[in-house]
Design goal:
The protein is an alpha/beta fold and 175 residues long. It has one domain (3-171). Helix content is 41%, strand content 22%.
């Protein structure tokens, strides 16, 4: 499987997982998933009867962590970066990585009327509780194209969904 095929598979897996978790939580049907061209968000589906586009992102922390988690070969430079990362407290890496990811996605222009950002936490060191504890430290961009921003708390979705935007959803999240 090449990098592009793997990326599409990861995006589809994350989208399906998000749709299932959203349906379970809110009882609103989400169906039919398809992949889009680069000018649009990654995946489209239907929320009830309305089209909804999903931009999918995976939260790893760094390129080095992503390569390690994905089982890719790492060179000497990446190995040195991993050693430096291990010396940085996980919660500090979490906030920095999440802020960087949201900021980067917020700068993109999407050819879509309704787009949600779905982030799947792929770092096994970060838990839903870690994310909840650090939500107030997130720097949500003032301008972004997302109607909603959701985070799947772990790679399998066992810890459920966390609404990062809008803020009133976050305030209603259980601890």
């Amino acid at each position: 499987m090449n990098g592009s095929e793997e990326k599409i598979r990861l995006e589809h897996d994350a989208a399906r997982l998000f749709m299932r978790l959203y349906e379970q939580r809110f009882g609103i049907e989400m169906r039919h998933i398809w992949h889009n061209e680069p000018s649009q968000p990654d995946v489209s589906c239907y929320l009830a009867e309305q089209r909804l586009d999903l931009e999918i992102a995976h939260l790893y922390g760094s390129e080095a962590e992503a390569m390690l988690i994905l089982g890719r070969e790492i060179g000497d430079n990446i190995h040195k970066e991993l050693i430096a990362l291990l010396r940085t407290p996980p919660e500090r890496r979490l906030v920095a990585a999440l802020n960087r990811l949201i900021s980067n996605k917020a700068e993109k222009i999407y050819n879509s009327d309704r787009v949600w950002l779905v982030i799947r936490n792929a770092n096994p060191l970060w838990t839903r509780q870690d994310i909840l504890s650090n939500c107030k430290r997130l720097n949500m961009p003032k301008q972004h194209p997302f109607e909603q921003i959701w985070l799947i708390g772990d790679i399998q979705g066992k810890s459920g969904l966390l609404a990062l935007y809008p803020s009133e959803l976050t305030e209603n999240e259980p601890n």
